[in-house]
Amino acid sequence: MTAYRPNLADIQFILHEVLQAPRQLQALPAFADTDSSLLAQVLDEAGKFVAAEVAPLSRVGDEVGCTFKDGRVTTPPGFQKAYSAFCQAGWPALACDTTHGGQGLPWVLEGVVFEMLSAANHGWTMAPGLLHGAYECLKHHASAELQARYLEKVATGECLATMCLTEPQAGSDLGLVRTRATVQADGSYALQGTKIFISGGEHDLTENILHLVLARLPDAAPGPKGLSLFLVPKRLPGGQRNAVVCERIEEKMGLHGSPTCVMRFDEATGWLVGHAGAGLNAMFVMMNAARVHVALQGIGLLDAAWQKAHDYAHERRQMRAPRAEGLPKAGAEPDLIAEHPAVQNILHTQRAWIDGGRVLAYRTGVELDIAKHHPDAKRREQAQNWCSLVTPVLKASCTAQAFAGASECLQVFGGHGYVREWGIEQIVRDARVPMIYEGTNEIQAIDLLLRKVLPDGGEALAALWLSLRKDLDASLALDAEVLRRMAELRYLATQIHLAAAGDARLPFVVADDFLQVVALVLLAWAWTQIAHTPGADTPRWQVPGVALQQRILPTLEMLLRRIRLQLPAPNPLG
């Protein structure tokens, strides 16, 4: 079984050459000293850490998994040591403020590091995966007292954090949350209720765990607007154990190295984060950061699957591969399966998704940094518009392709892929859950169409397309195709907007297909940027670019037709 290897050459080509990220980041006062050399140095060190400390634990994490006994969770062998090394090296605090013990580096750099971590060992990476979101949530919404007590501990990884949203009766519909919070004489709150599907709700990686819990005050309004957010630590400031109980961990399809817990709060002590009734506002700071991380998980998992399939295809010999002049004569040595067109189709198609996905995800990371740090308010607004529209598309499309593409990569192994020896089946299992958590992919599609596109009649989407047009050259075939599809999609958004006035159900029916269309147009745009970059005129970049045009983009017609079939027929009388 081959272990994942961070592909720094590809990552840095996209980050430095395609996106010119160092130049964009250095234009921000906070990152004036963040040049190409610094980015390369950090990524090089991260790659070494990932390969040496995290990737070798992937198999034991899956096969041994987490164990539960008497309310305590023990992580797989080696996980605790690797996490301690992770913290000592300063990786959790990469993008946190220096005033809180962080390194003050760009978010996009942290995002790339977590892509590599997820590819190497998805189960282990789940533990620190929520740290930055929890940090931002507390930084923007917690009281000065809570920040002084916990913010630095989160930034440095001394305390890990959870998001406690889901309950047995309340999944995506958070308005059904029943967990109650009652104010105490000292200003703290007592929380009572049960949360399920809590990643890292209990473990042995850190002494303390900070649970960010959505709950309802006694006089709260019904529905989601009545929810408040509370910080409930595993251990109270004096060191004593809080009334937070892990009832069990789930037996899951994958991600065995990450404990998924049922958590019971028995009048547990907590403190309000933000304002009463504004819990979702505070929690979404955490969730939106997590959704970009999940998109990068998808890219990393697909890259890990592709690496295994690529390596196997260049070792395994079977039959003779057809050539333009016909099949070779019988009796010759079998060819590598990498020479067979069916295998090439799989490998090249997945690589097109990985490369294009990286362009979009890294661009989103840069836009997050711009939205936070750019001195010009208009540019910050443009960056926020990009992140608002592209984040749900990235989360849904990258995770869906991670699972579908990993399954395709398993096919390269034939029967060997279905057994544990080669490790590809673990990636397929692990890659399934990102389509579900942090808001299912169907929720992402609804968010995109009904909350981001339709309310203004598609104007925000049109502004996004306008910002991307400047990077296109209409004299080039792919660029011209992207321009045509942008105009087509803009008109389609208008049609859906008008039709929804007479059929409120329609946008929900077409939302998934609409998101996929947007994803493919963005993917095509990403590949125009690769094609325009000096150094991309080599087979390494040209071959997956051809796969994009021949095997991925043709599905646009099917998706567009499926949407149009749901629209009302034109009135012949006008």
Largest sheet: 7 strands, mixed
- Secondary structure tally, helices: 19
**Could you spell the SSE succession in H and E letters?**
HHHHEEHHHHHEEEEEEEHHHHHHHHHH
Distance between the termini: 64 Å
Structural class by sheet pairing and helices: alpha+beta
* Unreliable spans: none
The helical percent reads 40-55%
Tell me the fraction of residues in β-strands, as a range.
5-15%
Compact summary:
The chain has 574 residues and is of the alpha+beta class. It is 53% helix and 11% strand. Strands 3, 4, 5, 6, 7, 8 and 9 form a seven-stranded mixed sheet that branches.
How would you characterize this protein structure?
The protein has 19 helices and 9 strands. Among the domains are: 8-136, Acyl-CoA dehydrogenase/oxidase, N-terminal domain (Butyryl-Coa Dehydrogenase, subunit A, domain 1, Orthogonal Bundle), CATH 1.10.540; 159-277, Butyryl-CoA Dehydrogenase, subunit A, domain 2 (Beta Barrel), CATH 2.40.110.20; 441-574, no CATH class. The chain is 53% helix and 11% strand. A hairpin with a 2-residue loop joins strand 1 and strand 2 (72-74). It is globular, with a radius of gyration of 24 Å. By secondary structure, the chain is an alpha+beta fold. The longest helix is centred in the last third of the chain and has 36 residues, at 377-412.
